[in-house]
Amino acid sequence: MRRISAAARREFAAKGLADARIDDIAHAAGVTKQLVYHYFRSKEELFACVLEDSSATTMGELVAVELDHLAPRDALRALLNHMIRPYCDPMLSALAQEGIRYHESHATPRNSFVDLAPELKRKMRSVLARGAQSGDFRANVDPDLFLAAAAQVTTSAFVSRYTVVTLCGLDVANADDADTWRRFAVDFVLAAVERERSDQHPLMRPDAPPKTPPEAA
User: Which residues bind DNA (predicted)?
Assistant: First the structure.
């Protein structure tokens, strides 16, 4: 069973749901096609199982992150970095793209993303509330909207590579470019919620020269 799931994960990540073949999955797993169909009634059911396993792992790790001991800025930065980290794995990023398309048109019996989302929302509310109380963050921020926007800003580059390559020349399939995007995206999200914006997190590429303010006329 584990060999089938692992082989299917590689096949779906490489070819997508439409082009993946049960014959190839069975061959890679070292089993017969009949055995695959013994456990899974269809290719779609196997794909849904692979998605659920990946979602359960990534969301489980995300909601398990300990943040209460960190200062609000550090806690938010840690949470955002953990949101991005799975997408730096090319296989998970490819599965995420397929999963988004699949979930838009299919209902699945289990969905760990939906099941664990309330805990993730609770974590974000707690971090923002502590930041507002300490004076680090603005108080007039809707935590659920902020979480959704932060998730899109930080991870969308990994599922919309063409757009990012075209607009800013970064290919997140490259480790250095992925790290540049990660740092910029996290600083961008922090800038949106900080009560007093400073030069602490400049929204520049790491190798960009400092900007010299124009001289007064």
Answer: 21-40
